[in-house]
Amino acid sequence: MNMTHYMELLAVNQPWNLIIYMVIPVALAEMLVATEFFVVFNRGRAGGLMRTLNKYIGIILGFYFLGIFLNLMITAVPTMPWRGMADILAVGSYLSGVIPLMGIALLELGAIGRGKTEDEKLKLHFILLTVFLVVAHVAMVFGMVDPTIMGWNPNAGQMPMQHNMHHN
Questions:
Q1: What is the reported pLDDT for 157?
Q2: Does 166 map to a domain?
Q3: Residue 89's domain spans which residues?
Q4: How far apart (Å, rounded) are the C-alpha atoms in residues 78 and 139?
Q5: For residues 12 and 148, is the Cβ–Cβ distance under 8 A?
Q6: Which band of pLDDT confidence, cut at 50, 70 and 90, is reported for residue 162?
């Protein structure tokens, strides 16, 4: 069975890579989604515990994922022999999660969105969280695909996106 670098990252160094790169960010993201429901439902009312939890989870998740992003961009991605389109979509989508997550962290810290109303901030927060959920799920789906399904040929060498297609 061939696997994408995304799946390989999660499979090696058990259980630590799985915990660091999947369990912690997904658990935090799920807590952020759960608290987001309460925040949106209680919009216009006092902030309360769920809003406070939502704020701190957003900040922690944003900076935690920034650490993951920097670690992988420095240690893994520069020398990665791509395994076709599935690999690129999986790794690229996973890493792109840093954009909406850091957006949430910066919004919560007041570094962006200062001139916005509370409703506008809530909407931006919700949109950023939705974008993260989409790219995270794209990463998971393509990360679990055998990269040969999307044209990668492991016997053709490690050249980027090399296809071994013969036309008669």
A1: 58
A2: no
A3: 5-149
A4: 19
A5: no
A6: very low
User: Sign of the C-alpha dihedral, residues 49, 67, 26, 110?
Assistant: positive
Mean pLDDT (the chain) is 90
Q: Give per-residue burial for 34-56: e unless 16+ CB within 10 Å, then b.
A: ebbeebeeeeeeeeeebbebbbe
Q: How many CB atoms lie within 10 A of CB 31?
A: 16
- Residue 101 in domain: yes
Asked if residue 144 is part of any domain, the answer here is yes
Q: Is the pLDDT of residue 84 over 70?
A: yes
State the total domains in the chain: 1
Q: Is the dihedral of CA 26, 31, 34, 37 positive or negative?
A: negative
CB 80 within 8 A of CB 91: yes
Q: Is 57 within a domain?
A: yes
